Structures are given as structure tokens and as C-alpha cells.
Amino acid sequence: MAESPTPLHLSAAQARRIALTAQCLTARRPSGVVDTVDRLAAVQVDLTSHVAPNVELVLWSRLGDGFDTEQLGLALERRELVEIHGFLRPADDFALFRAQMDAWPGPHAADWQVASARWLDANARARDDILQTLRSEGPLRSGQLPQDGFVRPWRSSGWNSGKNVQMMLERLEEAGQVAVSHREGRERVWDLAERIYPEVSPVALDDAPRLQAERRLGSMGLLRATSAKVPGEPNDVGEIGVEALVEGVRGRWRLSPDLVPVIDDLSESFSGRTALLSPLDRLIFDRRRMAELFEFDYTLEMYKPAASRRWGYFALPVLHGDRLVGKVDAEADRRGGFLRVHAVHRDEPWAPGTVDDVERELEALARMLGLLIEFE
């Protein structure tokens, strides 16, 4: 029996720098919107706009003054980027999901997925009416689609109970029959998937999970074989990649093979920068990974009562070099024309240069938003 390869040993700094390099958060910026999304693999579509929608914050934190919303809109209009399951992805990545959509709910479906497929079949008339309406009149919002024909209403213990058309569209998206064409404000506009997704040869169904995991690991740099559950995009990779140990952190990690050759360079010549991150940024969204690699304490507090918040409703984590060093409590007052900075929380004493860098990032964020900055 062949012996398992010896795990690579990484210092804590190397591990952080691997994660930052993979997530395009070094001094070397990506070349544009499409390049950024391609390197990140997936950017969560969340429309909370206390500061700016998540997609805009994530792209701006990578591109800086090189980002503008018109460039993003053009990439979406040209279908260079598409929304798949609530994440913005490069259009060519549809090949990784098509076979699973075609086989939905799939041979290894969970009980809830099987129940969803049965619900879809029970409401075949409503399904066919919706698809026919999209074919003849789409793209359309959910409220513009036929609302009747449901034999069995959607039931859940949550706020989706009775939202038949919305739940139908999401199941049809999982089955690869419809897709999000674009957004009008906060609302999704739907069309037939064949009009949205590119014509690509799907990867084999049995290969899809592995290839998706390889894509995920490449975009994150370093992940656990099994990770804490996070909403939406999975955050574990199984046994792909190179096994690694991180100094001072228990357990084993999986390292992207593409980054193995640059490990020594990351120790000697890493060039970091200062950035303000979205609370939903993939660098920090797995809070356990964030704490293990960056020793950073952070919670999104928008769901907490105001009196219980430590850092603010939608506080932006502050990256400086290869460390997360604080949070900025800011709010976009679009009616008043200001980016209001309520507080800057320092996790440790900042050098004068760090203060200046953070202020420059706040000024750049205000420029991106078309607002003046106001410190309270």
C-alpha cells in the first residue's frame, strides 16, 4: 500500500496570504469585472444596500477605482456573467452545473429535494402554464406569470409558505428550465434557461461535484475537507488538493495545487494592501475559517437589536496587509448625498499609516457610490 504524501507545513502568515492571493486581495488587482468574477468563481447576489449591494462591494474591494457599475451591467447584458442559484458566475461555468440540472433532483437527492420534485409534478398544469407564458412573453417578473393552476400549494414553516409561483420558479431553476434574466430593483426577472445560459457541453454528472470542488478550492486557496455549513455555495472540498497543516491551528487543510509553487514567494515578497470588505465576502463568510486563519472576531449584526450591536448594523471588516484589523460602521445616505461613517472600530492600535490607508479606502468607497463622506 502506497504511503500518503507528507502534508505541507504552512506558517500562519503563509496560510493567510494564500487565502488573500486566491481571493484577489493583494496589491496586484484583477483586470476587470469579468476577470474578477472568474477568479472568485462565485459572488453572492444579496441586495442589502445599507452601504451597497454585495456584488458591488465585492467587486469594488478587488478593483478599487477600476470598478464601475456600468462595466458590471454590460457584462450581465452580454451574458458574460450569469446568475446561477443566487450567485454571479462566469457564463462558461454553467457547464459544471448543467448535468446536475438535467438530472434534477438527482440519484442521491435528499428527502426535501425529492419532495420538491413531487410537488412540481403534482402542479404540472401550473408549471406548463408558466413555461409557456415565458416562452411567448418572457422575460417576466413572478407577479406577471399565471398564478392559478396549483393543485397543491407550497407549504413550509417559514415565510415562503403559499408563495407558489416563486417556489415554482426556484424549483424550475434547479431543474435548468428557467433562469434569472436580470434584476429590476430587488426583483428577479425570469426567462427560459435556454435564452440565458450559453450552449456548452456539460461535464459528466459523476465528475461535476469534483470539478466544482476544484473550482471552489482554487478560488479560496485553502479550505477544510469538510467545513462548517454556510448558506448557498458549499465551502468544503473533500479530498481534492494538497493536504496541509497550518501552524497553531488544529486539524488538516486542503491547499490549491496552483498555489504550491508560490508558497515561498508569499513568505518573502507578499505585497498586501488595505481593503474594506462586505460582511458577505467569501474571505470571511465561513466564520470558523475566518477565526482560525485570521484570528478575527466578527458577526453580522443587522439581525440584532440596536442596543446589542458592538460594531454596527452592516459593519465592514478592515483588511490591512495580511491581517483583519477592525470594522467600519458606515451607511450610504443616498437621499442626503453622504456616506456616513458612524464609527471606526480598531481591534488593535493602528499605526498612522494604517489610519491614512483606511481613510483613503473610505474616500474611494464614497467616490464609487457617488456620495460625499461624512465622519460622525
Low-confidence stretches: none
What general form does the structure show? globular
- What's the alpha carbon Rg, rounded to whole Å? 22 Å
Q: Sketch the major β-sheet.
A: 5 strands, mixed
Distance between the termini: 66 Å
Structural class: alpha+beta
Strand order of the largest sheet: 11-12-13-14-15
Task: Report helical residue fraction.
Answer: 25-40%
List the secondary-structure elements in sequence, H or E: EHHEHHEEHHHEHEEHHEEEHEHEEEHE
Q: Total number of helical segments?
A: 13
- On the 0 to 100 scale, the average pLDDT is 94
Instruction: Determine the strand fraction and express it as a percent band.
Output: 15-25%
Instruction: Give the tally of β-strands.
Output: 15
Structural account:
With 376 residues, the chain is α+β, with helices and mostly antiparallel strands. The protein contains 13 helices and 15 strands. The chain has a 5-stranded mixed beta sheet with strand order 11-12-13-14-15, with helices on both faces. A 4-stranded mixed beta sheet has the order 1-9-10-8. β9 (242-246) and β10 (252-255) form a beta hairpin. α5 (95-102) packs antiparallel against α10 (208-220). The longest helix is centred in the last third of the chain and has 18 residues, at 352-369. The protein is globular. The relative contact order is 0.15.
